Amino acid sequence: MIPIILFLAPALAMALFIFRSKKLNAVVICLYSFTHLACSVTLLVHPASYGRYFQVEPLNLFFLVVLSVVLAGISVYNADFTLKSAVPARKSTYYSAAVLVFSAAISGVVLGANLGMMWVCLETTTITGAYLIYYKTGKEPLEAAWKYMFICSIGIAFAFVGLIFLSLAFTGSQPSLFFTDINAHAPVFNKFWLKMSFVFMAIGFGTKAGLAPVHTWLPDAYSEAPSPVSALLSAALLNSELLIIIRILKIMKIADLGGFASAFLITMGVLSVFVAAVYIIRVGNYKRMLAYSSIENMGLITISAAIGGPAAFAAVLHIAAHAFSKASLFMTSGNILKRYYTREINGVTGLLKADPKAGWSWIAGFILLCGIPPSPIFLSEFIMIRTMFGRGMWWLAVPVMLLVTIVIYGMASTMFKMSFGNPQKGISQERFNILNYAGQFVFIAVLCLLGIYMPKAISDLITAAASLM
Question: Cβ distance 177 to 115 under 8 Å?
């Protein structure tokens, strides 16, 4: 199953260049995404490995299942995007090939059992992601793509230096980047080099995860990228970076440096929530608003993971809930853009009247993302805050709750302004087909189900993943 996930996408990408057909591009991405989902479910039932470099265990298996569901939902929306795109078939083929390689590279990060291999896959997402952001061409997409490439490349360089420092931390044994070897030798690591390694890797991988203060590529990239790509960046790429951060946090805990690592990550997490709260109340672009929301949620997840204990369960649950809700909202933002021809918040009113399906999915996505019941995020944030107070961390819980409230207020004022009222003249009267809404509706239904009743199999998967953090 793992070879299919990793190598089918590049093979299909090469095949696309032979035929160069928009229809085939759309079908192939859907084919790969649903094959990816089938393989993930199979691995869930029958775990397997592929050599030493790619393996599955409960933690990355959870991330893999979330990734598969996200890819499947986005691929359906992407099919209509590809078929109706005005670009020539040649450029559409480049785009589809990049999506396939980008998805396979993220899968490589998730399945990786070696930090070096994960770094290589991560670099692949930087290269392919830059092209996807620039897909529509123009001054703004070019600037966003260069910013993404430049800042993320610096982050990758920091992570690489961290890997070198990690090798120096080995004492009396051959350096290795396999997690089994690292975890086995962590208790006797040189503490100085391990601390240096963690700082560099946390900053480097945190750059791709959208954590402040190294988040600055994210709002521009999300705003200018095509909506399916924005959904992939937020719901797939960021999760893979969080997995790496969680893994290196575990190494620090084994080495008895958990306090140092947790304090560092909590600082980055709180700063991320603060940055989101400051900018989201005055943002003028609804896709940028969703980008700052991603920064906020990455911060909350990082804080929960750093606290550990019951909050680890909250972090894992929040990862899935954020991925599904944000994928839904970015796809809906694509419908809004096609209907209103603008990304500006002031240019959109009366969404519920102009496009009821998009309007209700927009509001539902907002409710679920902000943690309003029946959202699973309500449960994850409640567990996180309860854990903080239970450990006497009221000094952390109070400002976090205040900042989250500001973010919810900023998003609510925007969401309701766009949804209600009368639509302005000159908007598109095109009738969108079911492909434009199917993914959003499925994600919303899944989130509501998880918020009302969580099946034991899913609860056990989340618990097993959290136990390895």
Answer: yes
State how far the Cα of 152 lies from the Cα of 157, in Å rounded to an integer: 8
Report the C-alpha gap between 193 and 8 in whole angstroms: 39
Dist CA 329 CA 331 (whole Å): 5
Tell me the C-alpha distance between 222 and 226, whole Å.
Answer: 8
pLDDT at 255 over 90: yes
Domain ranges of the chain: 2-467
Give the pair of three-digit tokens for residue 91.
């450029």
Residues in a beta bridge with 50: 54
Ordered alpha helix ranges (H), 134-257: 139-169, 179-185, 191-209, 217-224, 227-232, 238-254
Q: Which pair of tokens denotes residue 465?
A: 């993943």
The pLDDT mean for the chain works out to: 92
Question: Regarding beta strands 54-55 and 49-50, do their DSSP bridges make them parallel or antiparallel, or are they unpaired?
Answer: antiparallel
| Residue 64 identity (one-letter amino acid) | L
Q: DSSP assignment, residue 423? A: P
**Omega within 30 of 0 (cis) for the link into 213:** yes
- Please report how many Cα atoms fall inside a 13 Å half-sphere around the Cα of residue 257, on the Cβ side: 24
Helices (H), 281-392: 286-307, 310-340, 351-354, 356-369, 376-390
- Give per-residue pLDDT as tens, 145-202: 999 999 999 999 999 999 999 999 988 778 889 999 999 999 989 999 999 999 999 9
Distance of CA 286 to the CA centre of its chain: 18
Distance CA 226, CA 212 (A): 24
Percent of the chain clearing pLDDT 70 (strictly above): 100
pLDDT in tens, 195-224: 999 999 999 999 999 999 999 999 999 999
Q: What pLDDT was estimated at residue 112?
A: 92
Rounded CA-CA distance 330/436 in Å is 12
**Prediction pTM value:** 0.95
**Closest CA relative to residue 399, chosen from 382, 385, 378:** 385
- Tell me how far CA of residue 67 lies from CA of 87, 234, 333, 409, 440, in angstroms: 28, 11, 20, 29, 15
Q: Would you state the structure tokens that stand for residue 405, as one six-digit string?
A: 């409230």
Which tokens in the block code for residue 452?
């009302």
Amino acid identity, position 94: Y
CB contact set of 97 (below 8 Å; sequence gap of 6+) = 13, 14, 16, 17
Report which of 223, 219, 203, 133 is spatially closest to residue 163, judged by C-alpha positions. 203
Cβ atoms of 226 and 136 within 8 Å: the answer is yes
Residue 345 pLDDT level (bands cut at 50, 70, 90): very high
Measured CA to CA in angstroms, residue 203 lies from 117, 132, 328, 329 at distances of 19, 24, 29, 28
Count CB neighbours of 108 within 10 A: 23
Structure tokens, 80: 């209509």
